Amino acid sequence: MNLRAIVQGKPPRVETSELGKGGADPSAARVSETPIWVRKEKVKAPVYARAKLLAGNKIAGPAIVTEMDSTTLILPDYVGEVHASGNILIRPTAR
């Protein structure tokens, strides 16, 4: 037996939203600090609330970004830049 179905219709219109613009300083989103282990060494890492970050904020590692359903770790020698779409673009810092 073989059954096939074809459905045609208008595709849904998906709208995107953009974050508010901010400067490079993410300190308004900082909620706490916690110790973490990096390269066999215990270091202090700031913790940021993702919902409070703005486009253009730059987060230098080590740092942690939290939200309801996920956690992002930014390692030392990396920086996370918040894009207008809300994504965090993590790149190595220039040496």
Model description:
By secondary structure, the protein is mainly beta. It has a domain at about 25-90. Helix content is about 0%, strand content about 45%. The chain has strands at about 30-40, 40-50, 60, 65, 70-75, 80, 90. The strands form 2 sheets. It has a 4-stranded mixed β-sheet, with no helix packed on it. The radius of gyration is 19 Å and the shape is elongated. It starts with about 30 loop residues before the first strand and ends with a strand. The model has no long low-confidence stretch (mean pLDDT about 95).
Strand order of the largest sheet: 1-2-4-5
Q: What is the percent of helical residues?
A: under 10%
The biggest beta sheet reads: 4 strands, mixed
Helix tally equals: 0
In angstroms, what is the radius of gyration? Answer: 19 Å
pLDDT under 50 segments (min length 5)?
A: none
Count of extended strands: 7
> What class, by secondary structure content?
mainly beta
What fraction of the residues are assigned to beta strands by DSSP?
A: 35-45%
Rounded mean pLDDT score: 93
Which secondary structure elements does this structure contain, and how are they paired or packed?
Elements: E1 30-38, E2 41-49, E3 58-60, E4 63-67, E5 70-74, E6 78-82, E7 88-92
Parallel strand pairs: 2-4
Antiparallel strand pairs: 1-2, 3-6, 4-5, 6-7
